Amino acid sequence: MVEIQPDQSFIQTLSDHLNHPDRLTTWDGFKLAYQAAQYKTVPQFDGLLALEHLPHVDFMDHQVQAAETVIHQMNGRAILADEVGLGKTLEAGLILKEYMIRGRAKKILILTPASLVNQWIQELNEKFYIQAASPRKKQASWKDWDVTVTSIDMAKRENHREEILSIDYDLIIIDEAHKLKNHQTKNYQFVQSLKKTYCLLLTATPIQNTLSDLFNLVSILKPGYLGNLTDFKKKYKKNTEDEDNIQHIHSLVGHLMIRNRRKDTGLDSSKRKVVNELLSFTEEEMAMYKRLEELKSTHPSFTWLTLAKELCSSREACYMSLKQLQKNAPEGKAEIYDEYIEMIGQLPHHVKAKRMTELIENAGEKFIIFTEYRATQYYLQWYLQQHGITSVPFSGKFNKGKRDWMKQLFKNKAQVMIATEAGGEGINLQFCHHMINYDLPWNPMRLEQRIGRIHRFGQEHDVKIYNFAIKDTIEDHIMKMLYEKIELFKNAVGDLDHILEQIPGGSFEQQIQTILKQSDSQGEVNIKLNNLVSYVEHTVNERRESS
């Protein structure tokens, strides 16, 4: 039985106020206070209140559903692992906004790669009306700021670390969380030590590579949820092929992870069209390529492999490596490189650079170009300049200010952005819808990460991707074996990244390197690559049938 306790002081207080009218507010003031009190109330526990406050943002169904699931079923601790371009940042922002409206989160820390700090601050401000601060190297008022966006490298510095670890955060968001898989790193140990009520880990890479990786990431969210690492490995490692064990692990992780796939979301308002272009070397270039093969007999296979890949990219990239080999050569051996260096100096402009310029001139629109080598990046920028085409470079090694500046120049001034692999992580370039993969990576998922820079949630135009490769070179085999046979672009397979990492004997990329290093002839390379791709195709088909 509930006992009702009347407020004994209310009548007396009211009487006193009525006797002193100066203590009473105006009618307008009362209505304003009443309205403010109404706003503070939480009318319902189900659904998302934040949607009413953000009418200008067009959220997709899968994003709203993900936010509801994290808040109402996962207690605010989750791994958001949607495929690239499906809007994980929007999901995290929606969850953050909801917790702020409900009064559950005031002190928030967002840890992201340094290259994405400004992008996060901008999106929080423009889309969620959330003001966030970003610290400087020497000055940071961690306790004074309610919402802070910074990099892990900045946060773990000695002059910041202790203050951050002393703060009780209501919500911590970690972008690119797959980089925290190793529990022995300082980054992992720092994040594990943070005091937090709610925690979101964002990653486009599924947490399925190894049992220890899985265990370590889950332990950031819920320490002890999977027990201790030794017992976990002992229980599951011996029976990783056991279907019941696999289902049990998936069931456990399913309570903590949300992974939306492009094929399940209906996000096909913009299409991607992929064109594989096989280009031919000139006679001089092919002669140089074959001449480099002679180094196989006197150098480690990795040396030839590197030089061959570089020559398929640009004369400049190959030249720089040859000069470095000459510089590091033992006494009396340096002169063997003279002839190679002289030959490469006489080569014409690269066939890829010519085709690239032709495509850009014909389209007359913005392009992003990905290359694997900085020397090629410099060469392409110079080459485009000679043809009157404006361009900006982009690299993960640029500091935060320069990265934002380059992105702004590309958006407002330049026609082309030339990015190295390190520059392709996390940046949002939806205003561009043409891409040239000048150099093909050996892991198809790295290519998927690149494409995700422009073919992502919110892209209104069809996206056109050009993949370049040189005929009768290692690039030719990679394109034919990987990008045509696996049909990566025709039918996105959500678990393809998992399949490529789980190949017996090493990841897909490691397998390719091993094949090229250990094969004595082109025929042997073809047979081994064919077998590798057949294994992947078989595994992909098995998964399609089972699903």
Q: How would you describe the overall organization of this protein?
A:
It is a single chain. The chain is an alpha/beta fold and 547 residues long. Among the domains are: 50-264, Rossmann fold (3-Layer(aba) Sandwich); 269-278 and 347-484, Rossmann fold, CATH 3.40.50.300. It contains 25 helices and twelve strands. The strands form two sheets. It has a six-stranded parallel β-sheet with strand order 3-2-4-5-1-6. It has a six-stranded parallel β-sheet with strand order 7-12-11-8-10-9, with helices on both faces.
Features:
single chain, 547 residues, alpha/beta, Rossmann fold, 6-stranded parallel sheet, 25 helices, 12 strands, 48% helix
Q: Per DSSP, what share of the residues sits in E-state strands of 2 or more residues?
A: 5-15%
Q: pLDDT under 50 segments (min length 5)?
A: 487-494
Arithmetic mean of pLDDT: 81
Sheet with most strands: strand arrangement: 3-2-4-5-1-6
Largest sheet: 6 strands, parallel
What is the straight-line distance between the termini? 55 Å
Proportion of residues in helical segments: 40-55%
Number of helices: 25
Q: Please report the first level of CATH classification, the CATH class of one domain.
A: Alpha Beta
CATH superfamily of one domain: Tandem AAA-ATPase domain
Overall SS class: alpha/beta
Shape by Cα distribution? elongated
Q: What is the number of E strands? A: 12
Q: What is the gyration radius calculated from CA atoms?
A: 28 Å
CATH topology of one domain: Rossmann fold
Tell me which CATH architecture of one domain applies here: 3-Layer(aba) Sandwich
